[in-house]
Design a protein that fits this description.
CATH topology of the largest domain in chain A: Rossmann fold
Number of domains of chain A: 3
Largest sheet of chain A: 11 strands, mixed
Enzyme class (chains A, B): oxidoreductase
CATH class of the largest domain in chain A: Alpha Beta
Shape of chain A: elongated
Radius of gyration of chain A: 25 Å
Pfam families (chains A, B): ACT (PF01842), Homoserine_dh (PF00742), NAD_binding_3 (PF03447)
Distance between the termini of chain A: 21 Å
Oligomer: homodimer
Catalytic activity (chains A, B): L-homoserine + NADP(+) = L-aspartate 4-semialdehyde + NADPH + H(+)
Number of helices of chain A: 16
Largest interface: A-B, 65 and 65 residues
GO molecular function (chains A, B): homoserine dehydrogenase activity; NADP binding
Protein name (chains A, B): Homoserine dehydrogenase
Strand content of chain A: 15-25%
């Protein structure tokens, strides 16, 4: 992670007490406190137990779970949990001087934030999978950890079992990340895959996802409206571009507006529709957006199907690099959390805690407004079937300086039953060449004033990742 | 990396001198010696120079190139190289006590092996991208490094810029790798992509690859016959399965036998032909093979095109995980080498060198013979066009206990001009259900005795990665 210019958050204090800390530790086990014991927490306990011998060898000392904080002492837990370790009091983890490492898997902002801050202030290493918290307070938490010379690790926060955080941090250490193109929400990807493969409507595919436990019931909006993906993009941008961003700066749209017809037209033009989180480093600014996107069927991202996630990085020297896998689920996320636990435990045991964040610089960066981005566009207009309409649409785009690569008219459509009673509607669908979004929007404003338009225009951006 | 049972190579000595070493070092820069300065070496020098400030921050001390050993002092070099550092004497790197870290980018087995051994013996960290050497002597070199408590890092050896080594080592630390399915030879992948997309013959696609510098001239056999992929599979198996294997144990076949017709039939059945390196951990044995393979067009590996590489790991807990990117080229490989340099330098600077290999166990494991593997098969028989032939082929397979999923007959083919003079040949092409390879081979032996067979049978295995 590199940025130009100064760094308002100092993540680079001099390590001074490391060798003392190691001498003090001797070969004592690393004592771990868990905050939360849901599905991920249960998976962490299981993996720590099953791999204890191997992890002790890798860390150089045994890893021991000392305390597990939960809300309900009576609830059923995994068999790997010794119930004697349970407590409802988080202070027994974050304030216990014998605990070296805190694993936060409770989620949410409150009280997770305060507990992590307290753990850091008391010199403990922290591992978390809390993307919401990191999206809101990541840079401040990292700076706090760096100042206190402890590690804050969060591989599980983005992309479940995908090693994207360590890839950005370590593998790209000597490269410059120019672009991030990511499928990071399994719910959206499942719904879009089913719509494409079975011709299902959004509503039908959502119900199916809910029945399978891939989408929240009754309110799936955190996923299908793109907010979850936006949180993950903020965390990725922090590492890839050294950017401190808040959610309001990320253009975020979800998948509710995609209709069956859009999948059919996309396919006809050689594309697949994916819900992407896109980040670009333009030098003087960055671009951050989350939205449905048409990508070529030959793209490697096009075959990332169902609940799978993938993050494609474009490095200046290394070129494209993709990591792919299960983006959610208790075990994949738990594997990432335990990998972090091993890393942090090893650093503590060898007296070099707090080194991972060294050299990081995270600061606010200008985010390019959506109107300034340049993209190709897929536009679908449901219009009255009468002569001259295609010409009026093409004309409006031409007047705005937007040139068209392909245009087709097809219909009548059966979607809009109210409209069909009047007169059959047809679809005019087109693909533009590269154009600035502001120009496209002004053309659409002109078309919106035409009486032949039956529904709001369907606009999706096109990427060639 | 985990294996069951004992470990004949002891990679786990107690670290004892680490804090002493760190105290001795103080904040002194890490002195680097380069062995070799070809395209990768030049890229390494460039990245070290361009990122020197950032790398020093991350490592905690400056990284300084002290000596660059080359064969020809007069040859043109990258501008990042201070020619005063050049030497033709490798002893000035491996025997110089002030050099902390040796980067071996000369390639080949001799003298690289001896120089790396000497560097290890003198307590230096080593970074290499030498897959040939690692395939032949990886376990012994790792054991030597562990015994001397120094790091031996080799991210650049497999998959160029793809962070596959650290993914296996770190991200999968608490998981068990059950399967590795990899596209690791860019030359083969380029040729197969061109054959599929343009209908070119193997010879034409090979010439094109040679003209573009993607295949060696005049002898491309290291790549197209699969040996390069086998070397990489051996390195992957060392980390993924803790297996010490030699090249003779890896079934290796190349892509010369694939004809245009095979791409057409594969496509018709819903598959793409890829040259894959496949490893499986079956518990009591492992499976290691390199060969052309039919995979479903919907597989994420199917869209890994051109010179790109990808490694798909199947973890018991984490599920599928894929890393993908440029598998070769000076800069991608150099990025991996420099990431390793940073890792190793950081360990030296903080007095914890030699910890990365801790907990690794590498030992000989039983490799399942090819006759025992179970797979689905694509079989193409070029036969005389006469009644009963399809029945005879199906009968031979049935007699051997191999059941057929699909069978088609098509022709006449135009491929075999000599045969065409006699009588038009037709193709009988079939896909089997899962079958043991030994049974398939015995069926093919029976068919080989039939006089209707015009050419040797084309056999390709089918995988569903």
């Amino acid at each position: 992670m590199k940025t130009e210019g100064g760094s308002p958050l100092n993540l680079n204090p001099e390590p001074h007490a490391a060798s003392d800390r190691r001498r003090l530790r001797g070969g004592a086990p690393i004592q771990i406190g868990l905050l939360g014991c849901g599905t991920v927490g249960g998976g962490v306990l299981r993996l720590l137990a099953e791999n204890s011998g191997y992890l002790a060898e890798r860390a150089g000392v045994p890893l021991v779970v000392k305390r597990v904080v939960v809300r309900d002492l009576e609830k059923e837990r995994v068999s790997a949990l010794d119930r004697g370790l349970l407590s409802t009091n988080p202070a027994e983890v974050v304030d216990d001087p014998s605990i070296d490492l805190v694993v936060e898997v409770m989620g949410g902002e409150t009280p997770a934030r305060e507990l992590i801050e307290r753990a850091i202030d008391r010199g403990k290493g922290v591992v978390t999978a809390n993307k919401l918290l990191l999206a809101a307070h990541g840079p401040a938490l990292l700076a706090r950890a760096a100042a206190r010379q402890v590690d804050l690790a969060f591989e599980g926060a983005v992309g479940g079992g995908i090693p994207i955080i360590r890839t950005l941090r370590d593998a790209f250490a000597s490269d410059w990340v120019e672009r991030v193109t990511a499928i990071v929400n399994g719910t959206c990807n499942y719904i879009l895959t089913r719509m494409r493969d079975t011709g299902a409507s959004f509503d039908a595919a959502l119900r199916e996802a809910q029945d399978l436990g891939y989408a929240e019931k009754p309110d799936p909006s955190l996923d299908v409206d793109g907010h979850d993906a936006a949180h993950k993009l903020i965390v990725l941008a922090m590492l890839a571009f050294g950017a401190q961003v808040d959610a309001a700066q990320v253009h975020t749209s979800g998948i509710r507006t995609i209709e069956e017809a859009d999948h059919l037209y996309a396919d006809r033009f050689g594309y697949t529709i994916k819900h992407l989180a896109i980040g670009r480093d333009l030098g003087d600014a960055i671009e951050l957006r989350v939205h449905p996107t048409l990508i070529p069927k030959q793209s490697v991202l096009a075959n990332v199907s169902g609940v799978l996630n993938a993050v494609l990085l474009e490095g200046r020297a290394v070129g494209p690099s993709l990591v792919y896998g299960r983006g959610a689920g208790d075990l994949p996320t738990a594997v990432s959390v335990v990998s972090d636990v091993l890393d942090v435990a090893r650093s503590i045991a060898s007296g070099v805690a707090g080194m991972q964040g060294r050299g990081m610089s995270i600061k606010p960066r200008r985010v390019r407004p959506l109107s300034e981005i340049v993209s190709r566009y897929y536009l679908r207009f449901a219009v009255e079937d009468r002569p001259g309409v295609m010409g009026r649409i093409a004309g409006a785009l031409g007047d705005a300086g937007v040139s068209i690569e392909q245009i087709v008219q097809q219909g009548p459509t059966k979607r809009s039953s109210g409209a069909a009673a009047r007169e059959p509607a047809v679809d005019v669908v087109l693909i533009t060449h590269d154009a600035q979004e502001g120009l496209v929007r002004s053309a659409l404003d002109a078309v919106a004033r035409e009486e032949f338009l039956r529904e709001p225009v369907h606009l999706f951006r096109i990427e060639e990742p």
